[in-house]
Design a protein that fits this description.
Strand order of the largest sheet: 5-4-3-6-7-8-9
Keywords: Oxidoreductase
Distance between the termini: 66 Å
Bound molecules: NADP nicotinamide-adenine-dinucleotide phosphate
Family: Belongs to the short-chain dehydrogenases/reductases (SDR) family.
Oligomer: single chain
Number of helices: 13
GO molecular function: oxidoreductase activity
Order of helices and strands: EEHHEHEHEHEHEHEHHHHEHH
Largest sheet: 7 strands, parallel
Protein name: Retinol dehydrogenase 16-like
InterPro entries: NAD(P)-bd_dom_sf, SDR_fam
Structural class: alpha/beta
């Protein structure tokens, strides 16, 4: 007698025991097929067990922290607001010696008021060589022979964001200067101090350093941060210095205020040469502006998703090379970044407005 199970007909015990020649076969049961399915099940079980072991080992390694955190100095750039500000307060509570670099005196004063006396501030404009040199001399005096355990290159700017054709060289330089050249200059300036401590360089990139879907200097700057960090990581390995990248998705911070974004985009559009403007049309501009503002609005308010990654990169014995922060980054942007370019193009352009003179 046969019992049917899914696609296979399973024989009764008496039929299994009978010789192949005398067996009555009414269904499609085949011993070779059954053997193959068992092998497949076994293979998946081995794979699941291997994956489980991998994650268990990773979990165990990643929960180990470095010792003597209270003796470790960490310099963070861009502490006036957003991730930098929250990270400075978070590490201060954890007992680290935070050297918080702010762009403005007002930002520095507010941060000092909200933190312990351990935290110290310095004014730093990452686009100014003099400012970087002065801040480095100050950091050197603070850390002495211990060196600098952590450098968090967090300062950044986004605007203007617009189709590349609407922008000028100055628009690109403004963003690249802060996000990439500034980051490189600060790193080169304090690197001897980080090497002395065998510490960490934590560079804040973005998911837009892995996948691009709008124009302007921001995405090229973050791709540059990724490339710089990768080469630096390889070079510093023999010195015991670790380089980590933070790749957040969209978060609601002052970096991209909706009203400022709208005003700057309007300003950019007003300066676009007439012959270019006519190829896009007013409808394109309005839809682009609306869609970009909607995108900003999807940002998460939970900034600690990012600062927890930064803290882990600074305090774990075995930090990750890359941290993607935010569900949009993990579940959408990062998977899309691994797809073939034609799939990416389809997904990223399907809702975009059509230019007036497009094909
Ligand atoms: N928010 C997001 O969705 C998101 C996503 C991915 C990556 N990121 C990155 O995260 C980092 C922090 O940004 P955030 O979102 O926390 O925004 P934020 O609150 O605007 O923080 C950026 C900080 O950098 C400072 N800054 C700007 N220009 C500077 C300069 N020339 N020198 C020194 N500091 C300067 C800003 O000072 P002022 O406020 O005084 O201008 C501000 O304190 C940036 O690198 C950004 O690209 C952000």
């Amino acid at each position: 007698m046969f019992f049917t199970m899914g696609r296979f007909a399973v024989p009764s015990q008496s039929e299994v025991n009978s010789s192949p020649g005398t067996r009555r076969t009414r269904g499609s049961w085949n011993p070779r097929q059954e053997e193959t399915s068992l092998q497949l099940v076994r293979m998946w079980l081995y794979l699941a067990a291997l994956l489980g072991l991998y994650y268990l080992r990773r979990w165990y390694r990643e929960r180990q922290t470095v010792e003597n955190l209270q003796d470790k100095y960490v310099l963070i750039t861009g502490c006036d607001s957003g991730f930098g500000n929250l990270l400075a307060r978070q590490l201060d509570v954890r007992g680290l010696r935070v050297l918080a670099a702010c762009l403005t005196e007002k930002g520095a004063e507010q941060l000092r008021k909200a933190t312990s006396e351990r935290l110290q501030t310095v004014i730093l404009d990452v686009t100014s060589t003099d400012s970087i040199a002065a801040a480095t001399a100050w950091v050197k005096a603070q850390v002495g022979d211990r060196g600098l355990w952590g450098l968090v290159n967090n300062a950044g700017t986004v605007l203007p964001v617009a189709p590349n054709e609407w922008l000028t060289k100055a628009d690109f330089v403004k963003v690249l200067d802060v996000n990439l050249i500034g980051l490189i200059e600060v790193t080169l300036s304090v690197l001897p101090l980080v090497k002395r401590a065998r510490g960490r360089v934590v560079n804040v990139s973005s998911i837009l350093g892995r996948l691009v879907f709008y124009g302007g200097g921001y995405c090229p700057s973050k791709y540059g941060v990724e490339a710089f960090s990768d080469s630096l990581r390889l070079e510093l390995l023999p010195f015991g210095v670790k380089v980590c990248l933070i790749e957040p998705g969209a978060f609601k911070t002052p970096i991209i205020n909706p009203q400022t974004t709208k005003d700057i985009l309007q300003e950019v559009w007003s300066h676009v040469p007439a012959e270019i403007k006519v190829t896009y049309g007013q409808h394109y501009f309005e839809t682009y502006q609306k869609q970009f503002l909607q995108l900003i609005d999807t940002g998460s308010r939970n900034l600690s998703l990012v600062t927890d990654c930064m803290e882990h990169a600074l305090t774990a014995r075995h930090p990750r090379t890359r941290y993607s922060a935010g569900w949009d980054a993990k579940l959408y942007y990062l998977p899309v970044s691994y797809m073939p370019a034609s799939w990416q193009d389809f997904l990223l352009t399907r809702k975009q407005p059509k230019p007036a003179h497009g094909i």
